[in-house]
Amino acid sequence: MKKIVTEVIPLNFWKYSTPKTVFPIASKVIPMAFLFAVILCVAGIYVGFFVAPTDFQQGEVYRIIFIHVPSAWMSMFIYIIIVFWSLMGLIFNTRLSFMMAQSLAPTGAVMTVIALWTGALWGKPTWGTWWVWDARLTSELILLFLYIGYIVLGASIDDIRRSDRTSAILALIGAVNIPIIYFSVEWWSTLHQGASISLTAAPKMAASMFLGLCLMSLSFWMYTIGAAFYRLRIVILKREKSSTWLREFEGAP
């Protein structure tokens, strides 16, 4: 299988599939990603909290969507990327794939916590309660447990190869929860409102609201990239500490 894919995908692609190649790239990407994250976040907060109009139904409280919605999107998207890297690691047995998945998990957990927390803040004035066992909220809470389980399982197994494969299998099993989160509003009668943004229709909101959401989403994207590469460097330093290339990179004799 790996031989067939190698013949299809250009060889220069596989050059970037090793810790040795990615480590110096990550060092350059991290500061740029965090810089863009800050700039986009400031712009998004300004547009979302000072430019976007007040919602005619919810008033000012709706502005929490500029944090809640991007974090909810990222909580699901990061898990999908973890599943992708886990699948690549299981199929091609590449060390870097498992490292990438492991590096993304803490950020995914943080995004899920932010989504749940801001959802509770939004739910109190909207629904009159901090929490309901709504299908969307419950499945998002399960996603947090999946992130925690993935992280804890990986850390509890001493053998790295077995840890990587076991965690990857758990990630693949948990992938069934992602469509449940996304389609829960359509599949069940829930308190959670439907999507205001769709790929097949125009946004159901003012242009300035949509711009604010886009800016904040891009900010969260940049933060995720920076945090993932920062954590990836730590994972590589830990796992490859005996490698000759790493000693040479650090200038060790």
What this model shows, in words?
The chain is an all-alpha fold. The chain has one domain. The chain is built from 10 helices and no strands. It has helices spanning 2-8, 11-14, 19-51, 65-92, 95-127, 135-156, 160-174, 177-187, 207-239, 244-249. Helix 6 (135-156) packs antiparallel against helix 8. The longest helix is centred in the first third of the chain and has 33 residues, at 19-51. Residues 4-11 have low confidence and may be disordered.
Uncertain residue ranges: 4-11
How many domains, as an integer? 1
Number of helices: 10
Write down the overall geometry: globular
Percent in strands: under 5%
Structural class: mainly alpha
Averaging pLDDT over every residue, what do you get?
85
Elements, N to C (H/E): HHHHHHHHHH
Quaternary class: single chain
Helix content: over 70%
Radius of gyration: 20 Å
What does the main sheet amount to?
none
How many individual β-strands?
A: 0
Layout of secondary structure:
Elements: H1 2-8, H2 11-14, H3 19-51, H4 65-92, H5 95-127, H6 135-156, H7 160-174, H8 177-187, H9 207-239, H10 244-249
Features:
single chain; 253 residues; mainly alpha
Brief overview, please?
This protein has ten helices and no strands.
